[in-house]
DNA sequence: GCCAACGTTGGC
DNA sequence: GCCAACGTTGGC
């Protein structure tokens, strides 16, 4: 059963012991992933004071996938939003993530949370549509498959190193929101303090699974109604 | 195809 | 545990 492969970060060599904990350990740099998964608080009644027991959850995400043919160890990892729509139940497992920070975000995802489906490494990079999480993190089987471009010989069946979630197509964006447009807003917002001032797409550009704040998510949705800038 | 950004590896 | 070399991501 062929399954789509999102071409995501990293190689199967990533070393480092699995970290349990909400947070994998990432090489020094400040900015632990957990810190960026800020509670964005979509529910009106809970206040910033709410204790969340260290369980800060982002409500929204951005997932990168490559919509154009791309060989990785001889396997085409192309997977566009059209490919997602063509899947049974318009659902796919998001396998192949081999970066600890990205993996930890996958593990933080909750049922029904929404994510932007982003087309990367292609002619026109940008946000193509919306998907939602329909199965929370479970072991990524491709880490054990020798023929997979994402095979990781260092991962053991009894303590899988890598995780994946299942996502389902929700809808296309009313218009394709290009990276260029997002970047224009990001630059402007850095000056004005607008909603995209810290967007991970620019501050952590290589992350293939990223959290978005409520403000970022809402602002990007509002762009659908406007003329491309 | 180039190359900047940045995560990972491994020598010390 | 530092850090230079290396490899990958991904825009352009």
TrEMBL record:
Domain of life the protein comes from: Eukaryota
Keywords: Nucleus, Phosphoprotein
Bias (Polar residues): 39-51
Domain EVE: residue ranges: 60-222
Pfam hit, one: EVE
Location of the region described as Disordered in the Swiss-Prot/TrEMBL record: 1-51
Name under which the protein is recorded: Thymocyte nuclear protein 1
Organism, as annotated: Suricata suricatta
């Amino acid at each position: 059963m062929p399954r789509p492969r999102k071409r995501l970060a990293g190689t199967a060599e990533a070393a480092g012991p699995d970290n349990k904990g909400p947070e994998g350990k990432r090489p020094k740099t400040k900015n632990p992933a957990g810190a960026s998964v800020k509670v964005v608080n979509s529910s009106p009644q809970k206040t910033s004071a709410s204790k969340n027991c260290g369980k800060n959850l982002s409500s929204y995400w951005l997932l990168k996938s490559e919509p154009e043919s791309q060989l990785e160890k001889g396997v085409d990892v192309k997977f566009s939003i059209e490919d997602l729509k063509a899947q049974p139940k318009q659902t796919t497992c998001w396998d192949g993530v081999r970066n600890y920070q990205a993996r930890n975000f996958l593990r933080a995802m909750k049922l029904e949370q929404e994510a932007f489906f982003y087309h990367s490494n292609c002619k026109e990079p940008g946000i193509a549509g919306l998907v939602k999480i329909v199965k929370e993190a479970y072991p990524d089987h491709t880490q054990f498959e020798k023929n997979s471009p994402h095979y990781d010989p260092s991962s053991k069946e009894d303590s899988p190193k890598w995780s994946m979630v299942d996502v389902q197509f929700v809808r296309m964006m009313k218009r394709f929101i290009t990276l260029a447009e997002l970047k224009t807003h990001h630059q402007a917002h850095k000056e004005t303090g607008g909603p995209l001032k810290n967007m991970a797409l620019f501050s952590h550009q290589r992350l293939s699974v990223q959290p978005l704040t409520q403000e970022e998510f809402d602002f990007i949705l509002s762009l659908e109604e406007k003329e491309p800038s």
